[in-house]
Each structure stands twice: as structure tokens, then as C-alpha cells.
């Protein structure tokens, strides 16, 4: 039944000619909406009074014509054709109350709105470009005055340069995040975490080495890292006022003691 | 320079008479090729001056003359009267040829700003080609606006003071036909009912937004 | 432009009224980059005009104003009144391009703020010279942010309102992400290296807005 309906509204001669005329410069169109807008002009009415049904027929004629002439149309043209065929059937058939989704009229109204909006934007673009323009119709001051001897240097950069700089860094080939072998590294954060609960008990001077974590005292590499981290953490705790630190002479053991708050 | 310092330190004295302020504003606007803001002018004028009023006087004074005092966004500039353009062939700068896509994109941004890329595509029915936005940015006619508060927080575009200056507009509100378009409802963003084939926007926006930023602007 | 040709061919008609000629001379003197000779003006004006007389009228009109019509050799120009020179300092600013190192550093701070020197170096892959940071600080485009709560409590850098102003941004968050840069055609389409530790947590970012901290300069 739907099939019959389609066959019924075969394109008129006029539509066929219109479609053929469009085909000539299909590359000149910016997508299906552009084609629809051009087709709508043949109706010679206000866009608000456009017959979307007729427009759908015209568009389908255009696509059929392209097929007949073996002209390859981009996918979005065919998507639009399929959708318009669907819209056409919705507009022609009596509404089915059981059917989900927007009615044919709603869809048609939205399409008309899109066409009207695009046309409006084109009109505005043309009005904009036709305005009196700086450097063509009216002019800025031509002469910069060298009035004072004071010259300040300012540096300038554009947003584009800024973004390009950032893009350049972020996509640089040779960029590799710096990664260290963490196995034998005891960090200062770890040392701090370890020492905080312990120092409360350091009422008397205690050797720094006694704070080294278990399993880090023997291997020289690990011991070095742990000692450095513990020492740095101690300094941090001294700075925070939780700890006192002393060393009797050069290379003598470093000793720590809790600092009591006054 | 001495006068200026004097005025700052001895601000007990009154600001110069309005006629004098008008001269100052006149000199500043004449000297600059770019529009100058009221704030900028006042920063350079003696203490207590009212640059806005001085500009208003100056503007009236130049009515009908060979140059005019025009407003460009928040700033003011002197420009030649458009009817005398024919004398200026020597000064005419080569206008860069814009593609139809670029012109339409510019108009859409101007009338719909702040406007996302997806909105431009939704209105034009095709994707915005690479380089179109780029070109408009480079010409200084559009810039990035505030991000949209919609999912994905897509970036937006707005027109610049340079755009206004170029097209002789006082503000974006003075765009030709703006009121009519608004009255006709053509500036509203109407979601398409159900599945429309031209909703290039819908999906794209999701994509552009959804993933766009989290790596950069971790929240 | 037609008008001009018309006037040349139909020179039987009278020249425009003197008031109109004065407007023309005014516009030409304003827009020209160099002083203009009488002969030059007449060549551009409709046939039968008397540029010398028009200039004389214009000159009188500008007497006592903020700008004057002055003779430069055998040509004419509009110049600022000498007593207002103090207003012109801003016009003699020399503009220079920012170095590549500086703009890259600035970009990293803008995208990653608050950002330590070590982080900048890690991202750029080369060390940041002291002069670069100093230059950006001096320009007022970056300032010190809150210290990082990491060991050593390194200082951080954030961008300033002047930065946003210069680049026409409302907030640093409006900067487009990599994905959007690519979409806008500003970036060759190669994906960024996988999992990059971008950005510092949201909390930190929030804090960047806070006031400058006195303890910043305690060293």
C-alpha cells in the first residue's frame, strides 16, 4: 500500500527538470540541507508556508535522478533521502495512535524551521558583509604619533600561539614521562609517615639509624635511600617544631629527640 | 607630565573644565588606531576627569564631519565617514577573501553567541570544516567564550571587539535584523523531535564534550 | 567610486560646496599614514575642488582643539596639540614577540595551574631558565600561587587576570582541550601519548584562586 502511494506521486516533468538542473553542480552544495533550501525556492512561497511534502518529493526526485545518471552522492544525502521517504509516508498516512514518537507534522515543522533558520543566517551573513567595513569604506587613523621619547617594550602573543605551543609540547614525539626505578627508593613521604607515630616516644636522644625501616638496613643501595629519606623527613619534622636534631661533630651519628610543645 | 602628577597629588583641586577634557579625549582618540576604553582614557587623564561625558560632547561635535566618533563595544574610536570611502583608495587594505562557509559560520556565531561548534553544525547541516574556525580566530573576529554549562562543557565562540570595529557595529546587540530574528523565534535552539538526520549536533556534542576535558581540567 | 568618475567627466558641474571639501580633506588627513600634499588631495577629490582653501578652513576649525592641522614641508597632517603630549605615552609602546620558551612555559602554566617549576620542566622536557619565569612575572601574566603541600613545599605559578584579559578569556578553564584544538584544526591529528599525568587535582586548582599568601616570601 505504501509502495503504491510512492508510485502514485511520480515526479512531474517540472520536478524532474529541477532535479536535473541541481545535479549539474552537486559538488557546489553544502550538504542535503543546502539542497533542500535550493529546492524550496522553486515553490516560490514564504519559507513558513513551504509544503514539506512537496519538498520531500522534490528531494527524492533529485536523488533518483542522481542515481539514474550514476552520480555518486555522499552518504548524508542518502540518509536524508531515506528520512524524507519516511517523513513522506508519515505525512500521507493517517496518524496511527499506537505509533511512538513525533508526528509527521512535528517533523515537517522542524524541517521547515531548520530551512528558515539557515536562510535567515545566510541573509544575515550577506547583510553583514554588505555593511560599510573598516579598511574598505571607513578608515582608522593612518598615522601613529611619536610624541614622547618614552618607549616601553611589551611582549605580545596571541591565543593561537599559546594553544599551538601547548599542542606542540603535548604531542612531541620524544616526550616520555620521567620514570624512576622505584624498587630501591624509600621516599621522604614514606619516611615521614613512618616517623610521625614514632617520634612521640623519642623522649631521649636517639640515633637516626634506629628509625630506618625493617629490611632496608643491609642492602647498601636501599640503606642509602632510606637514610637520606629519614634524614630529610627529620629536617621536615624539625621545621614543623616536633623534633630536635643534633650531631656532635662531623660524621658523628645524628641524634633525634622529641620537642615538647610549650 | 608634570601637570598630570600635579593633579594626582593635588587632587583637592578640581578636575579640568569639560572643554579641556574634551580636548584630551579628542587627542587620545585621534592618536590611536585602535578603539580606546573609557577606563583607559581616564587612567591617562588628570584625576577626577569624566571621560564618558567628554566623549559624548566630542561625538556631538563631530556629527556630520569628515571623521566620526564611534562606539566599539566598551571603547571609542575615530573613523572616517563611510561616504568618503572613495577618497581613500590609497589606504584601502586588501580584504581577505572569506569562503561562504566562513562567512556563514561567522554570522551564526555573531547571532547565536556564545555558540558551540555543534550548534554551528546543527544550523548549517554540515560539519564545520577544518580551518574555518581557525581562519576566523586568526583574523581576530571570534574568540573563545565561556564553556557551555551543558554536559561535556563544550567550548563556545563569541565575536570580538575587532569584529564590531570592522563592521562598524557599536555592540553585538546592534547586529542587523537581530530583533526580527528573535521575534521570529529563529535564534532559539529547538531540539529536533525524535531522530532527525540533520542533528549532526546531538551526537557530536556528546562526544566532543564527554571526553574532551577530563584529562585537562580534572575536577 | 562612481561619483568620482562622474565628477571628472562631468566637470561642467560645480565642485562640491566648501563644507563638503573640508570634510574630504579632514578624512584624508586623518586616514593617511603620511602627510598629504595639496596636489595629492586634489588628485583624489572631485574635479574643481580647492584643497588649499579647504585645508585653511579645516585648520581654523581645529584651532584650540586637542589636535591641530599642521604643515609638514609642503604637505599637511593632523597632529596632537603639543600641550597634550603627556597623554600619548601609551602610543609609543614597542611590541615584541614572546620567545618560544616563554610561550611554552606560559601555556603549561595556563593549562596546569597551579604548577611548579619542576612540573614545567618535566612537561617541556628541558629546564626552564630563570629569566623566562622572571619575564612572565614581570609582564604580569603569571604570579605566585599557593605552595604545593609536597615535600620542600615548592612555590607554584598561576596565571593572572591580566593574562586572561590579554588573551580574551574569561577563565583559564575556557582554554580548549587537546581534543578541541584538534577539532578546530589547530593541531595535527595525532593522539597525545597515552596516560599522561595531566593536571593537578581539582582541589588544588580551587585553591589557586585564593589570595596571595604571605608565607610565600618567607625565604
Structural commentary:
The complex is a heterotrimer, with 1 copy of chain A (262 residues) and 2 copies of chain B (219 residues). Chain A is mainly alpha-helical and 262 residues long. Among the domains of chain A are: 18-94 and 103-123, no CATH class; 188-258, Orthogonal Bundle (Arc Repressor Mutant, subunit A). Chain A is 52% helix and 6% strand. In chain A, strands 2-4-3 form a 3-stranded antiparallel beta sheet, with helices on one face. Chain A starts with a helix and ends with a strand. Chain B has 2 domains: 13-84, Arc Repressor Mutant, subunit A; 100-190 and 203-208, Arc Repressor Mutant, subunit A (Orthogonal Bundle). Helices cover 42% and strands 11% of the residues of chain B. Chain B has 10 helices and 6 strands; from the N terminus they run H-H-E-H-H-E-E-H-E-H-H-E-E-H-H-H. Chain B has a 3-stranded antiparallel beta sheet with strand order 1-3-2. In chain B, strand 2 (67-72) and strand 3 (75-80) form a beta hairpin. In chain B, helix 6 (117-124) runs antiparallel to helix 10 (200-212). The radius of gyration of chain B is 23 Å and the shape is elongated. Strand 1 (153-156) of chain A pairs parallel with strand 4 (94-97) of chain C, so a sheet runs across the interface.
Please describe the topology of this protein.
The complex is a heterotrimer, with one copy of chain A (262 residues) and two copies of chain B (219 residues).
Chain A: H1 2-8, H2 13-24, H3 31-41, H4 52-68, H5 75-92, H6 104-129, E1 153-156, H7 159-170, H8 188-199, E2 206-207, H9 220-240, E3 243-247, E4 254-258
Antiparallel strand pairs in A: 2-4, 3-4
Helix pairs in contact in A: 2-4, 3-4, 3-6, 4-5, 5-6, 8-9
Chain B: H1 2-9, H2 18-31, E1 36-37, H3 38-44, H4 51-61, E2 67-72, E3 75-80, H5 100-112, E4 115-116, H6 117-124, H7 132-138, E5 142-144, E6 156-159, H8 161-166, H9 178-183, H10 200-212
Antiparallel strand pairs in B: 1-3, 2-3, 4-6, 5-6
Protein name (chain A): Segregation and condensation protein A
InterPro entries (chain A): ScpA
Pfam family, one (chain A): SMC_ScpA
Amino acid at each position: 500500500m505504501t509502495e503504491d502511494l510512492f508510485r502514485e506521486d511520480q515526479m512531474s516533468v517540472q520536478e524532474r527538470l529541477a532535479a536535473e538542473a541541481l545535479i549539474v553542480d552537486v559538488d557546489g552544495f553544502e550538504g542535503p540541507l543546502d539542497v533542500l533550501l535550493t529546492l524550496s525556492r522553486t515553490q516560490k512561497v514564504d519559507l513558513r508556508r513551504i509544503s514539506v511534502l512537496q519538498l520531500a518529493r522534490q528531494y527524492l526526485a533529485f536523488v533518483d535522478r542522481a542515481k539514474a545518471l550514476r552520480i555518486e552522492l555522499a552518504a548524508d544525502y542518502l540518509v536524508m533521502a531515506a528520512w524524507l521517504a519516511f517523513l513522506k509516508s508519515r505525512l500521507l498516512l493517517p496518524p496511527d495512535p499506537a505509533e511512538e514518537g513525533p508526528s509527521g507534522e512535528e517533523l515537517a515543522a522542524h524541517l521547515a524551521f531548520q530551512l528558515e533558520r539557515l536562510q535567515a543566517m545566510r541573509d544575515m551573513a550577506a547583510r553583514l558583509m554588505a555593511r560599510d567595513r573598516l579598511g574598505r569604506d571607513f578608515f582608522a587613523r593612518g598615522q601613529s604619533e611619536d610624541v614622547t621619547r618614552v618607549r616601553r617594550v611589551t611582549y605580545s602573543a596571541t591565543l593561537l600561539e599559546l594553544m599551538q605551543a601547548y599542542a606542540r609540547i603535548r604531542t612531541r614525539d620524544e616526550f616520555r614521562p620521567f620514570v624512576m626505578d622505584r624498587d630501591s627508593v624509600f621516599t621522604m613521604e614514606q619516611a615521614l609517615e613512618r616517623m610521625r607515630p614514632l617520634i612521640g616516644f623519642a623522649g631521649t636522644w636517639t640515633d637516626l639509624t634506629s628509625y630506618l625501616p625493617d629490611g632496608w638496613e643491609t642492602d647498601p643501595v636501599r640503606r642509602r635511600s632510606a637514610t637520606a629519606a629519614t634524614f630529610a623527613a627529620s629536617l621536615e619534622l624539625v621545621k614543623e617544631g616536633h623534633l630536635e636534631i643534633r650531631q656532635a661533630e662531623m660524621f658523628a651519628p645524628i641524634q633525634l629527640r622529641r620537642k615538647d610543645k610549650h | 607630565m608634570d601637570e598630570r602628577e600635579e593633579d594626582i597629588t593635588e587632587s583637592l583641586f578640581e578636575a579640568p573644565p569639560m572643554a579641556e577634557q574634551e580636548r584630551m579625549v579628542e587627542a587620545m582618540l585621534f592618536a590611536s588606531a585602535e578603539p580606546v576604553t573609557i577606563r583607559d582614557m581616564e587612567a591617562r587623564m588628570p584625576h577626577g576627569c569624566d571621560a564618558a561625558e567628554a566623549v559624548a560632547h566630542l561625538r556631538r561635535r563631530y556629527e556630520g564631519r569628515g571623521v566620526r566618533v564611534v562606539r566599539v563595544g566598551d571603547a571609542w574610536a575615530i573613523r572616517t565617514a563611510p561616504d568618503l570611502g572613495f577618497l581613500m583608495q590609497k589606504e584601502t587594505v586588501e580584504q581577505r577573501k572569506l569562503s561562504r562557509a566562513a562567512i556563514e559560520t561567522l554570522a551564526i556565531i555573531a547571532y547565536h553567541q556564545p555558540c558551540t561548534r555543534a550548534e554551528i553544525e546543527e544550523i548549517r547541516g554540515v560539519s564545520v570544516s577544518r580551518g574555518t574556525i581557525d581562519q576566523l580566530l586568526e583574523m581576530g573576529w571570534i574568540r573563545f567564550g565561556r564553556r557551555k554549562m551543558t554536559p561535556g562543557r563544550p567550548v563556545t565562540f563569541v565575536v570580538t571587539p575587532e569584529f564590531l570595529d570592522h563592521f562598524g557595529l557599536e555592540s553585538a546587540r546592534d547586529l542587523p535584523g537581530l530583533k526580527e530574528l528573535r521575534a521570529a523565534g529563529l535564534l532559539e535552539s529547538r531540539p529536533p523531535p525524535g531522530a532527525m538526520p540533520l542533528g549532526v549536533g546531538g551526537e557530536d556534542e556528546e562526544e566532543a564534550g564527554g571526553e574532551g576535558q577530563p584529562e585537562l581540567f580534572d575536577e
